[in-house]
Amino acid sequence: MRLINTCTLQLAGPFFSADVPPYAILSHTWSSEELCLQDMANVSQHNHKSGYHKIKRFCERALSDGYIYGWVDTVCIDKTSSAELSEAINSMFKWYKNSSVCYAALEDLHTNKESTTLSDLEKCRWFTRGWTLQELIAPEKLIFFNTNWVEVGSKTELEFCGMIEDITTVDYGTLLGFSPRLISISRRMSWASRRQTSRIEDLAYSLLGLFGINMPLLYGEGDKAFLRLQEEILRTSDDHTIFAWSTDNATSRGGVGHWGLLAPSAACFRNADYVPVRGLGYADHALTSRGIYLKAWTNKSCTQMALNCRPRSMLGMICTIPILRLRTGPNDFSRSYDPPEPSWVPSDKIEEISRQTEVYVRTNIHDDEFEEEHLVDYLEVTTLPNPVSGYKLEEWFPGSRLDSSHGVIRASPFPYINCGAILVFENASPDLPRLMVALFADGLPEGSDSIARDFAWVFQSDK
């Protein structure tokens, strides 16, 4: 990492690991007059910019506190290098955590220490930005300053810390230094749910350190960054609270009420306050090309799936979320929009009212996922035992659409005719004719277990 010499305002380093000297670090919100790394070559030429005066006041304070070095994100990272930017963002939480002191500049706060109230702090832009969340949590020592660089409080002061907790909802213990990994995933996500970043991707990237994740930055991926973050979290965590989010704060995909199992944004965790529980006998989940694989407890109609978590204030309960069977496979599901919030049932009733089902739940749903060509039904095909009927299923069309292990066939309409599938049955007796069965499906009722609604006609063909 590069550092600023607080005496000369010149850049020093780079420093590596154990060679990094003690340093102060700045937490602030950006304006249009920030300096960059290239400006530091002739820093005095930029003394007309507010960004210069911010760095100067930061260095003066750090030097008065005995720190020869300081770190400021605007000038200590070469943002023209994508590799350096990626390394810096993946290291940022650690850099704030390892600092000797962090100074938070509340540039829109005009009150002094004695007169600063909760209402004054709530109006500060610093508490609304995505990047400042990790800058609040990571440092052990965090001091806040008003617009004139006069100290107004620190997070180790009980009264001031209480106001910060009220504004941010970050737990008091976390503010005082307990590891955020002791807090459930959904709770940590809720801390970011009201925060904003200039670029969509940055809301995900600003959370990497909070979840102990490293991943490459792909600016331009938009909402996919938040999905990638959740997928990376799932590779190392079995905390089901990541699935306990609300659809109230997002827009339905495809207009048909289908959602992925993963939240489209942090805003979906706004009211999430769930904690993990153990004892439902869930095996490890797995990320697959079909979605997230779970051997889950579902109700008999497969419209609700239980999670290994509960509301924090409700002992003895288990969260459930609504799911919908997809027509892409007998075990394929999405999340349903109704109800938007997780529900809950008594944990001691789960085995009585549910069954364990192998499911693949999509991680996300694309807007074109449910165009007409994708809306295919699954029909349950049952034949009488050979000793009774003498008939056996020998051929079917289309050949790739029969899942013999589940007795299910994909009934996608053929071109020009409204026929879902053709089955050919042979009899053991050479004197009995071959039977061809054409299946027509006009959709399935909600919650049905893949039962054909209409067999339109059956005819006998020449052998």
Number of helices: 12
The percentage of residues in β strands lies in 15-25%
Average pLDDT, all residues:
84
Oligomer: single chain
Number of strands: 24
Helix content estimate: 10-25%
Which stretches are low in confidence, meaning pLDDT under 50 for 5 or more residues running? 371-377, 411-418, 441-463
Main sheet summary: 8 strands, mixed
| Sheet/helix structural class | alpha+beta
CA distance, first residue to last residue? 80 Å
> What global shape is seen?
elongated
Number of domains: 3
Tell me the radius of gyration: 29 Å
Task: Summarize the structure in words.
The protein contains 12 helices and 24 strands. The longest helix has 16 residues. It is α+β, with helices and mostly antiparallel strands. Strands 8, 10, 11, 12, 14, 15, 16 and 17 form an 8-stranded mixed beta sheet that branches. Strands 2-1-4-3-5-6-7 form a 7-stranded mixed beta sheet, sandwiched between helices. A 4-stranded antiparallel beta sheet has the order 19-22-23-24. It has 3 domains: 176 residues, no CATH class; 134 residues, no CATH class; 85 residues, no CATH class. This is Heterokaryon incompatibility protein-domain-containing protein.
